[in-house]
């Protein structure tokens, strides 16, 4: 066995002596591959040529690439496990339950899909929503979430693994968090290196910005959409680098899944065209870019229009116009490149000047026209309002990737300084293609070609103390980040809104289950076709848990219908009763937090009901009527008489004036608003209390049916005809015959004789 030369021995000793050798092996390698350049560099350093690796598992692990692959797989698996486990606080503390409001509709839709099939789901008309209008579910939702959960449920049942569809919905988002980590790793590795990709995967697995929408029980679109977002970006970068139609078609399929899952697909259809536009400005145009974007735009456009809820929006709405504009620009640019190769320089300049002049004139006339109709500002406002929805959630993956790149560079600089000086970094395998095509380069981000003199400069090594201090500081930052993420996830994002918890002074926990208690009462004690009126926040929960018909819900597609409910809540009982009778309302549900100090009740939301109702009914409802002359919104005696007599106020505080919560406060003291209510003598004429939960959090009232006969407000009519004499009864013990009062008298007529005739 040949002995290694001196430089090789020194290099091996430095690797073995460093405790971060495994990490730096990942940080210094691009994709974990060692091309022919590695052997050339090894020989140039004076080392012997490496022997062929032995076959088998031990032979694969004896190579650095084998250990790197095993270490990468282990880190990704641990990141997936950490992300999945950190999202289970709500399940451990409470139970496996759907959270919030929108997830209840998603769960109800998924249950319908699993029970009746895909085509029944697409054609499902939900008669329990928006009574009496109803809702066509298949054409008003992004079906990707429901189809994903239904497909997983079908696969598990096919494998004879009995799982309820609710459990699939609860654990879907934590499961997809691991896929998001893998897709982020792939994207960051493609843009930078493998070490940064592993750090990015670990960051996004536990970052609170992503966990807030993907905890167990949060069965919402964002739980799977962030994975689709990252994976689409990865496939796009792969498509541009290779110019392969295969990778581009994979990118189109991933984009199609993203469109089916979330409305945030507009970020993709705007960012990818922006990327192509910047490449054109930087003179990085190549056939790879042309093939990738032309295929992506055409196929992606056709696929996205297959979603019923999207329809023809990709060719009509403003947020898709940037993609169409860049597509036209790319075709024009490619056509100019084609002409430049076949025309003389003078002819090309003349044609180019003419084309630019015509384009500038068309743009100028369009701007003048739009300015004249005052539509330019509207179009730009609609565009940015549609694009910048939920910016924080889409910003989270980018922050994780940039942070991972920063940490990777710091570790590489402070831990790999000696190794870099002894063994220069290996050129990437893609450099050979760059050398063959120096004019059309699409390098990795951050790859800057150094001057020959800069490459020949020797870097001075850092002292061990500086390296140790910086390393410890970086590790402390990472540990603090992990602790912070765990604490935020545990305390801020792991409490289902349908189950509340409070803590006593001794640390014991009280569970407030009023919501489910009230919904279960509705399900068990009301008619199957009963109609429940409430504010739109609770529509999905009533339909999902109580299985009863609602007037409005969280879809909020019909503002006039919501305003009608707000008008009923804001009016007095008599006016509200007319509205409720016109809508066939059987029960009214309100949320009241004055007993336990719950700040999310309907009294705190009441002004929004007034404002929405005023927008549709300005003659009947005015917001100023519910404030005091000093402009205050008060529920005590100084409150507005309109407020103290409206239906919402009366339903919330009915019988509350008789309740004294403790000896320090008077009866009827509202803990949420810290005030004694102003109207304690509340009585109903058209409603009656049907149910109040244990902690008075949910109150349900039954709407009385109208009387069979409407009572008259005035006295019955009295005649002024009096009899001339007072008749007394002539009935005695001996004379049994009675006397008929006002007996008709008949006069006997004369019979006409024949002689008279």
From TrEMBL:
It is a multi-pass membrane protein. The chain crosses the membrane at residues 70-92, 136-156, 168-188, 194-212, 262-282, 289-309, 321-339, 351-379, 391-411, 469-489. Its main location: endoplasmic reticulum. Residues 1-55, 421-443 are annotated as: Disordered. Residues 37-55 have a biased composition (Low complexity). Residues 532-588 form the STT3/PglB/AglB core domain. It is found in: Endoplasmic reticulum membrane. Its EC number is 2.4.99.18. Residues 71-363 form the Oligosaccharyl transferase STT3 N-terminal domain. Pathway: Protein modification; protein glycosylation. GO terms for cellular component: oligosaccharyltransferase complex. It catalyses: a di-trans,poly-cis-dolichyl diphosphooligosaccharide + L-asparaginyl-[protein] = N(4)-(oligosaccharide-(1->4)-N-acetyl-beta-D-glucosaminyl-(1->4)-N-acetyl-beta-D-glucosaminyl)-L-asparaginyl-[protein] + a di-trans,poly-cis-dolichyl diphosphate + H(+). One of its GO terms (biological process) is protein N-linked glycosylation via asparagine. It is an enzyme of class 2 (transferase). Keywords: Endoplasmic reticulum, Glycoprotein, Glycosyltransferase, Magnesium, Manganese, Membrane, Metal-binding, Transferase, Transmembrane, Transmembrane helix. GO terms for molecular function: dolichyl-diphosphooligosaccharide-protein glycotransferase activity; metal ion binding. Its cofactor is Mn(2+); Mg(2+). Belongs to the STT3 family. Component of the oligosaccharyltransferase (OST) complex. There are 2 OST complexes, OST-A and OST-B, which contain STT3A or STT3B as catalytic subunit, respectively. OST-A and OST-B contain common core subunits RPN1, RPN2, OST48, OST4, DAD1 and TMEM258, and OST-B contains either MAGT1 or TUSC3 as specific accessory subunit. This is Dolichyl-diphosphooligosaccharide--protein glycosyltransferase subunit STT3B. It comes from Balaenoptera musculus.
């Amino acid at each position: 066995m040949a002995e290694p030369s001196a430089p090789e021995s020194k290099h091996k000793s430095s690797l073995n002596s460093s405790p971060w050798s495994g990490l730096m092996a990942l940080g210094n390698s691009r994709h974990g591959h060692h091309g022919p350049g590695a052997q050339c560099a090894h020989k140039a350093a004076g080392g012997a040529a490496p022997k062929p690796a032995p076959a088998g598992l031990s032979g694969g692990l004896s190579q650095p690439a084998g250990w790197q692959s095993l270490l990468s797989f282990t880190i990704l698996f641990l990141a997936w496990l950490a992300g999945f486990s950190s999202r289970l606080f709500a399940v451990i503390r409470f139970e496996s339950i759907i959270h919030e409001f929108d997830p209840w509709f998603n769960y109800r839709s998924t249950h319908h899909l699993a029970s009746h099939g895909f085509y029944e789901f697409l054609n499902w008309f939900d008669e329990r929503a928006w009574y009496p209008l109803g809702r066509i579910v298949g054409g008003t939702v992004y079906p990707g979430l429901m189809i994903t959960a239904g497909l997983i449920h079908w696969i598990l049942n096919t494998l004879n693994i009995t799982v309820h569809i609710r459990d699939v919905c609860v654990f879907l988002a934590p499961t997809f968090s691991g896929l998001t980590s893998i897709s982020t790793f792939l994207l960051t590795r493609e843009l930078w290196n493998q070490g940064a990709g592993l750090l990015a995967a670990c960051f996004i697995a536990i970052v609170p910005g992503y966990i807030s929408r993907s905890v167990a029980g949060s069965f919402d679109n964002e739980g799977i959409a962030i994975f689709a977002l990252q994976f689409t970006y990865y496939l796009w970068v792969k498509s541009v680098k290779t110019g392969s139609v295969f990778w581009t078609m994979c990118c189109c399929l991933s984009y199609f899944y993203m469109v089916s899952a979330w409305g945030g697909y507009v970020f993709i259809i705007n960012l990818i065209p922006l990327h192509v536009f910047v490449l054109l400005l930087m003179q990085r145009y190549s056939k790879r870019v042309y093939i990738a974007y032309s295929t992506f735009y055409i196929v992606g456009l056709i696929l996205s229009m297959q979603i019923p809820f999207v329809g023809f929006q990709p060719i009509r709405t403003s947020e898709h116009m940037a993609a169409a504009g860049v597509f036209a620009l790319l075709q024009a640019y490619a056509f100019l490149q084609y002409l430049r190769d076949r025309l003389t320089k003078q002819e090309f300049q003349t044609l180019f000047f003419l084309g630019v002049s015509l384009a500038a004139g068309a743009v100028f006339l369009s701007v003048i026209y739009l300015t004249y109709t005052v539509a330019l500002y509207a179009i730009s406002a609609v565009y940015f309002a549609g694009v910048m929805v939920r910016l924080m959630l889409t910003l989270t993956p980018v922050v994780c990737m940039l942070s991972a790149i920063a940490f990777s560079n710091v570790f590489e600089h402070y831990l790999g300084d000696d190794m870099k000086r002894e063994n220069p970094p290996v050129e990437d395998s893609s450099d050979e293609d760059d050398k063959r095509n120096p004019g059309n380069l699409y390098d990795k981000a951050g790859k800057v070609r150094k001057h020959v003199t800069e490459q020949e400069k020797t870097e001075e090594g850092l002292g061990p103390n500086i390296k140790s201090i910086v390393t410890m500081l970086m590790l402390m930052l990472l540990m603090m980040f992990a602790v912070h993420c765990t604490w935020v996830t545990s305390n801020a994002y792991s409490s289902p809104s349908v189950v509340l918890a409070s803590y006593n002074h001794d640390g014991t926990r009280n569970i407030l289950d009023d919501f489910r208690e009230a919904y279960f009462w509705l399900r068990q004690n009301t008619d199957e076709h009963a109609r429940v009126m409430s504010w739109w926040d609770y529509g999905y929960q009533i339909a999902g848990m109580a299985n009863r018909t609602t007037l409005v819900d969280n879809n909020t597609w019909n503002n006039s219908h919501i305003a009608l409910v707000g008008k009923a809540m804001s009016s007095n009982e008599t006016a509200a009763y007319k509205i409720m009778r016109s809508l066939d309302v059987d029960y009214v549900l309100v949320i009241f937090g004055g007993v336990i100090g719950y700040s999310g009740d309907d009294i705190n939301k009441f002004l929004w009901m007034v404002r929405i109702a005023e927008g549709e009914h300005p003659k009947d409802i005015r917001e100023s009527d519910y404030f005091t002359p000093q402009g205050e919104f008060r529920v005590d005696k100084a409150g507005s008489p309109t407020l103290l007599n409206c239906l919402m106020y009366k339903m919330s505080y009915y019988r509350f004036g008789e309740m004294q919560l403790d000896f320090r406060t008077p009866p009827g003291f509202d803990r949420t608003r810290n005030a004694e209510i102003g109207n304690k003598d509340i009585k109903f004429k058209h409603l009656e209390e049907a149910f109040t939960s244990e902690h008075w959090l949910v109150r349900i009232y039954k709407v009385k049916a109208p009387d069979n006969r409407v009572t008259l407000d005035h006295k019955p009519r009295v005649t002024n005809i009096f009899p001339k004499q007072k008749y007394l009864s002539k009935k005695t013990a001996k004379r049994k015959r009675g006397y008929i009062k006002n007996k008709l008298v008949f006069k006997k007529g004369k019979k006409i004789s024949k002689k008279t005739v």
